[in-house]
Structures are given as structure tokens and as C-alpha cells.
């Protein structure tokens, strides 16, 4: 039992009860005369054992008083009582020592049990580093048994590059300092480097003298791996965000993966034609890149291997190959495969696909070689996470470039359309000015025609009428009836000429045949008129019957023919003109071909004649196309949609 944990009332009460009980039993039995102190001694020992020094002394005093009063004769009572008290005190001290020793043994046993059951590695050592205690946790962590290391220096678990830590730690401990959660690296019996956190505390005795060092070692490999993985993925994110060029991005990923995940890493992408191209290969040792290429080609490019790149790209599933042994590597799948070096160079590998939404566009291989690392499911999960981030970044870059391309194309189209609109506006302004000028010129021409021709005729008629008036009134020289009839006939002829002149002016403004006989007849009449006026042979053909087109379209087609014939007369130097009118797919087609000199280049669309022709067709959603070659003449094709076309006299309208 552990003293001091019970209440004073309980411990002193127990001592009193035990002493009284011893008194009663002694008086009730023969012990009162033969051995009156025996039961008192037992009561004192039990009281000391149960309650400690205080209850033991209390029981001694009570037992002494009871002995003097009940059992010691009055003669010499004081001397006997003193002797009895001394004996009882010796008994109490002896009993307390036994109690202390028993308690210390229990504490030590309890402490040993705690140390042995701890999952942490607990080590005690001297100040100079000699191992004294090596618990099972230390055995599991470092691989050494207690028998192998107790009595040896703790430097047995120090890596060669960290022996200076031993000297620094020893100096700090000798200065009385303790170490708390010191992160470092130690080495196990099999050579593995282990990330550990160490706490070291000085052990002192009751006089506060340093008697050793207690050391707790915790394995933090998983924590360190998680921290390194987090830093690695953060660096990956920075790299992925730094460039929108997917080749640069993937090559950077290969460099980052070495050596954090692999000793060498290769990245493949699928081209548009389905072939697989190696985009990057990085090795932890640049001198072994060529060897890595050789191994990659012999093993990982084989489509028949379940963990090959083509197989992973085809299935979209990652592959974790079982660890290679030296026997496997030098055996028989490809007898020549690994003769490039005595060391096969393959220990473990993973192949993970690069998957973008809706497509698999490549794969990444991770190979463990010189490091001897064997991949597990945690490594595969990290590789897949890396591939997922890389694939997402590549897909984002592809979408960005596609958006940029579309934006550029849109900008180009907008710019082109803007230029076209500006050109069209300029052409329309020029055309409007030309039309205004043409209207004024036409007015001048009509005015001159009226003045020169009709005015002259009217003047002559007026003079003839004046002459006849004088002859009839008798004021002039007498004329015979035959002479008067001749004058009247001449005047009538002048009137007819005036009427014909008016008709000609009207026909120039708008031919009546277009309104009365339809478009086909008007075009045929125009060809005849042009032939008579320009002395150029003309031929008109049409497979259409007499048709009635709406007036607006009829006028547009007629004016386009007039302008085309005017251009032939002015520029073509032709001797023959052919024209045809037909219908194709609800479109009216007028085609005119001459045998003149032909155009030497693309026609100038800013020329008012051509511009006017195209604007007339454009009003109805049509077009005017001009083609030709030097010496071969020129062809003008007019194509205008037909909204309605009705055979003359049918009374039926057809929507076209």
C-alpha cells in the first residue's frame, strides 16, 4: 500500500483499535503473565504498516502506557518502561524500513511495467551515452534487441552524417539542459533511416545528483511523409499555375516527381493520330537517362505487358507492378532486356493515366531503382493525385488556348466585318453621291433633249402655224390650196416627230415594254436596241415562258442588264454579246457573256457601275458575280431569289 493516501482519522483510529484489541486479548489470555508485550508489538507493526510513522508512534505510546498501568509492577517501573519504549521504537523503525523497501519495490515494478508496455521507444543511458535500459518499443523501432545494445554507446543508432548531434546533445545534458521534441533522423539495424522526435530528461537521485538520462524516441516517419507530401503538392500546384503551355507543365511535373516519388519518371501523351509520344523523362542521376530510355522502351512500352503505358492509356486504370527481384529482372521475359548493366535497375513501378473530362490523353510512369523503394497503395494514391492535378491543369490550358483562339478568331472576324462595313459605308456614300450626280446628269440630258429636240420641233410647228394663219387671214402672200395642204402635211409631220421624241424620252426613263410585256420581252427588246445602237451582235436565250415577276425585281434585273451592256460598249471591245435567263432552285439567273478583251484582274468593286449592279441585287438578297480572263471575254452572272413567279394568265401565285 502507499502511505499518506488515507485520512488521519482512519490511520490513527486503526492504530488505537489495534492497540486496544491487543490489550484486551492480552488480559483475557495467559499472555498477560507470560508475554504481555507480544500482542502490543504486533499491533505497533500493523499500525506502522498501515498508516506510517505517525500511527506507529501513536500505537507505541498507547501500548507503553497500557503496559505500565496493567502489566509492569510499581518497583522499577520507570526503568522497565524506558527499556520497553526503546524496544518498541526499534520495532517501529524496522517496520517502517520494511514498509519503505516494499513500497520502493512496488514503484520500481510499476515503472518497469509502464516502460515495457509503452509503444514509444524508451531508453535510459549514462551521461556519456552508454545504454542502460532498452524497452520493447526501442526494439521494434530500431530492430536491435536489448541484449544487443545494453552496455553499448547510443551512437549505434546515429547515421554517419549526424555524429555531431551526439556531441552537441552530450554538451547540453552536461550543462543541465533537457531536450524537448527534437526532430532528427536515426538509423535502424537494417540500415533504414527513420524520422524521429526525441525528448531527453536528466535523472536525479534524492540528493539531486544526476545519475543518468531518460530518452523517449517517437517515430514520426508518417508525419514527415505527410508534411513532405503536402509541401510537394503545394509546389506542384505552383508549377501547374505558372504556365499555360502543357508541354512545359508536364516536363516540370516529371522533374518534381524525382526524387520525391521516383528515381526516374516519364510522361507520355497521345497525339491526334492515336500514336503515343514520350514527352519527358527525368532521372535522379542525369548520367543514367539513356539507360532509363532503354529500360522504358524494353518494358513499359510493350503493349502486351499489363502495366505498360499503352495498356494503361487504353483501359484508363492505374497499374502497380509487384516489386522486381533480381531473379525476375535477370530472367526470361526478354533475355536481352537487361544486359545493358549487371544491375537490372528496376525495383518497383507505377503507371497512372492522365484523364481529362471525357478523354484519356496520356500516362505517367514512376520507377524505383537505385533507392530500392517498394511502392504501395499510399504511393499509388499520391501518384494518382499528382496525375489528376496535372491532367486538370493541361485540360485547363487546352480550354484557355481554345478560348484564346476563339477570341482571336472573333476579333479577326469583328475587325474584318468592321472593315467591310466601313468599306460598304464608303461605297454607299460614293454610290449615293454618284446617284445624285447621275440624277442631275439625267435631268440635264432630259432638259437638253426637250430643249434641243422638242423645243426645235415646237418652234418649227409654231412657225408653220403662224404661216398658215397669215395665209388663211389673207395677210400674207396668197397660196394655192395645194401649197396650203403641203404646209399642213409638213406641220403634221413635225408634230409626229415631237410625239416620238417624247416617247423616246419616256422609254429612256422606263421602257413601257417592261410594264406591259414582262421581264423577258423587255430584256430581249433591250438586246435588240443595244445591237442597233452599238453595232454589236447580240443574242438572247431563255427557257422560261412569258413570266410575270414582281415590279421591283423586274426593274432591278433590267437595270443590271442595261449597266452590263453599257460596260460592254465602253470597255470590252467586244463583237458579240450573249445573254440567257433561267430559273435554278427558286432563283432567277441572268447570265451575260461577251467575247471582248476580258478582265485582267479582280474587278474594281468601287466602280459605280459594278457597285450599282451589286447593290440592286443585294436589296433582294441576291448577288452579282463577274468572272473573266484576258482575251477570253467577261461573264456577268446575276442571281436573285424569286418570292413569287406566276405564268401569265394562270391566275395562280406560287411562293418561291
Question: Can you put this structure into words, describing what you see?
Answer:
This protein is of the alpha+beta class and 656 residues long. It has four domains: 8-114, no CATH class; 118-219, PAS domain (Beta-Lactamase); 244-402, Beta-Lactamase (2-Layer Sandwich), CATH 3.30.450; 518-647, 2-Layer Sandwich (Heat Shock Protein 90), CATH 3.30.565. It has helices at 8-28, 31-34, 38-51, 53-70, 77-117, 136-142, 146-149, 163-174, 221-242, 246-260, 289-300, 309-315, 326-329, 377-473, 481-509, 512-516, 519-534, 551-572, 608-618, and strands at residues 121-125, 131-134, 179-187, 193-204, 210-219, 264-270, 276-283, 319-320, 348-356, 359-368, 537-542, 547-549, 576-584, 587-594, 623-628, 634-641, 645-647.
Amino acid at each position: 500500500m502507499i502511505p499518506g493516501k488515507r485520512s488521519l482519522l482512519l490511520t490513527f483510529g486503526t492504530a488505537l483499535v489495534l492497540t486496544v484489541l491487543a490489550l484486551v486479548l492480552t488480559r483475557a489470555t495467559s499472555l498477560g503473565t507470560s508475554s504481555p508485550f507480544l500482542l502490543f508489538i504486533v499491533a505497533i507493526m500493523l499500525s506502522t504498516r498501515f498508516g506510517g510513522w505517525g500511527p506507529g508512534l501513536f500505537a507505541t505510546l498507547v501500548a507503553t502506557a497500557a503496559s505500565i498501568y496493567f502489566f509492569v509492577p510499581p518497583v522499577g517501573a520507570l526503568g522497565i518502561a524506558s527499556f520497553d519504549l526503546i524496544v518498541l521504537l526499534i520495532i517501529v523503525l524496522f517496520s517502517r524500513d520494511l514498509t519503505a523497501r516494499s513500497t520502493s519495490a512496488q514503484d520500481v515494478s510499476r515503472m518497469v511495467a509502464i516502460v515495457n508496455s509503452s509503444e514509444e521507444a524508451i531508453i535510459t543511458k549514462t551521461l556519456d551515452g552508454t545504454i542502460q535500459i532498452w524497452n520493447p518499443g526501442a526494439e521494434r523501432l530500431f530492430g536491435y534487441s536489448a541484449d544487443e545494445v545494453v552496455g553499448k554507446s547510443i551512437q549505434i543508432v546515429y547515421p554517419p552524417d549526424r555524429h555531431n548531434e551526439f556531441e552537441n546533445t552530450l554538451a547540453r545534458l552536461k550543462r543541465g539542459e533537457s531536450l524537448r521534441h527534437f526532430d532528427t533522423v536515426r538509423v535502424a539495424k537494417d540500415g533504414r533511416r527513420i524520422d524521429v522526435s526525441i525528448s531527453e530528461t536528466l535523472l536525479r537521485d534524492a540528493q539531486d545528483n544526476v545519475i543518468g538520462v531518460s530518452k523517449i524516441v517517437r517515430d514520426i516517419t508518417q508525419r514527415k511523409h505527410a508534411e513532405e507530401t503536402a509541401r510537394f503538392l503545394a509546389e506542384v500546384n505552383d508549377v501547374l499555375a505558372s504556365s499555360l503551355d502543357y508541354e512545359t507543365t508536364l516536363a516540370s511535373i516529371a522533374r518534381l516527381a524525382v526524387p520525391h516519388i521516383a528515381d526516374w519518371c516519364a510522361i507520355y501523351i497521345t497525339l491526334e493520330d492515336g500514336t503515343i509520344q514520350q514527352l519527358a523523362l527525368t532521372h535522379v542521376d542525369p548520367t543514367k537517362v539513356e539507360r532509363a530510355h532503354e529500360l522504358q522502351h524494353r518494358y513499359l512500352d510493350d503493349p502486351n505487358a499489363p502495366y505498360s503505358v499503352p495498356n494503361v492509356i487504353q483501359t484508363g486504370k492505374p497499374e502497380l507492378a509487384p516489386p522486381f527481384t533480381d531473379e525476375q529482372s535477370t530472367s526470361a521475359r526478354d533475355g536481352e532486356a537487361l544486359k545493358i548493366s549487371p544491375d537490372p535497375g528496376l525495383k518497383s513501378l507505377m503507371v497512372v493515366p492522365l484523364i481529362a473530362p471525357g478523354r484519356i490523353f496520356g500516362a505517367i510512369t514512376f520507377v524505383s531503382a537505385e533507392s530500392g523503394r517498394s511502392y504501395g497503395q499510399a504511393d499509388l494514391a499520391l501518384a494518382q493525385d499528382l496525375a489528376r492535378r496535372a491532367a486538370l491543369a493541361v485540360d485547363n490550358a487546352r480550354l484557355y488556348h481554345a478560348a484564346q483562339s476563339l477570341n482571336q478568331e472573333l476579333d479577326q472576324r469583328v475587325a474584318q466585318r468592321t472593315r467591310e462595313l466601313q468599306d460598304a459605308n464608303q461605297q454607299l456614300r460614293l454610290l449615293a453621291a454618284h446617284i445624285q450626280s447621275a440624277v442631275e446628269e439625267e435631268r440635264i440630258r432630259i432638259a437638253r433633249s426637250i430643249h434641243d429636240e422638242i423645243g426645235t420641233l415646237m418652234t418649227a410647228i409654231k412657225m408653220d402655224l403662224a404661216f398658215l394663219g397669215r395665209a388663211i387671214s389673207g395677210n400674207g402672200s396668197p397660196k394655192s390650196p395645194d401649197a396650203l395642204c403641203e404646209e399642213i402635211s409638213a406641220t403634221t409631220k413635225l408634230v409626229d416627230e415631237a410625239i416620238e421624241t417624247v416617247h423616246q424620252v419616256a422609254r429612256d426613263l422606263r421602257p413601257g415594254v417592261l410594264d406591259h410585256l414582262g421581264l423577258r420581252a423587255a430584256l430581249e427588246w433591250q438586246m435588240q436596241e443595244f445591237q442597233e445602237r452599238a453595232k454589236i451582235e447580240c443574242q438572247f436565250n431563255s427557257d422560261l415562258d412569258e413570266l410575270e415577276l414582281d415590279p421591283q425585281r423586274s426593274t432591278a434585273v433590267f437595270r443590271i442588264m442595261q449597266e452590263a451592256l453599257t460596260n460592254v460598249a465602253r470597255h470590252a471591245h467586244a463583237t458579240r454579246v450573249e445573254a440567257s435567263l433561267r430559273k435554278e432552285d427558286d432563283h432567277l439567273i441572268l447570265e451575260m457573256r461577251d467575247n471582248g478583251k476580258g478582265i485582267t484582274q479582280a474587278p474594281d468593286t468601287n466602280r459605280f457601275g459594278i457597285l450599282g449592279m451589286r447593290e440592286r441585287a443585294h436589296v433582294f438578297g441576291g448577288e452579282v458575280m463577274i468572272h473573266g480572263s484576258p482575251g477570253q471575254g467577261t461573264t456577268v452572272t446575276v442571281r436573285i431569289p424569286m418570292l413569287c413567279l406566276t405564268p401569265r394568265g394562270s391566275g395562280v401565285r406560287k411562293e418561291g
